[in-house]
Amino acid sequence: MIIGVAGGKGGVGKTTVSLNLGWELDGVIVDGDLATTDLPQNRGPGIHDVLAGRVDPVEAVERIGPINILSASYAIEGARASDLQRFSEAVTMLERTYGTVVIDCPAGLAQDIGVFLDSADFAVLVTTPKPAARADAARTRELAIELGTPLSSVAVNQIFAETYLGNSRDELLSEIESELRTEAIPIPYQASVATAQEEGKPIGTLVPDSEGAKQFKTLADRQRTVVKR
Q: Which helix (H) or strand (E) element contains residue 103?
């Protein structure tokens, strides 16, 4: 399966979701943020080299700690040399080898996110409880639907135990499910989630019994359920 992780607005935790989901599903994470990557970087060739036709995508995957990743770089020249028409074939080749591919899509609604979502079997939306983030997620949902890419779930990052804007946690999740018309899975606001991301590691490898780790497992189980339908 190929999963596109998208959120519209930057800063909602899309990369965090991609990293943890890729690890939980024992797949390969592909960095689609070609200009402003936040994922760990390969020491050798990366996605830019693949999209420039310089290297085979499977050969460019690197094991960094506990994750398999095909990363981008910070060099703007790499992004300019990339041919997005090669992307779909590249992730299909990775799927044959690894079984699961998780694409960390770029923020916004530029042309490249359409290429990435169109290459996915289904999409996971990422948002926070903030109205602006939810509105951006809704626009991303519309794009995915236009491309014929179904949604599997929405990961709601930075959920606090207390109420938000007068709503309880359950009321908030119900609202988001109604807005985005898919199951909402809460990712709690925890320092351990941020710490794990800063270290480029899934939270399940650092604090496996934490609420954050449990919810990422729930998110991964949801993707397995969708595939079995």
A: strand 101-104
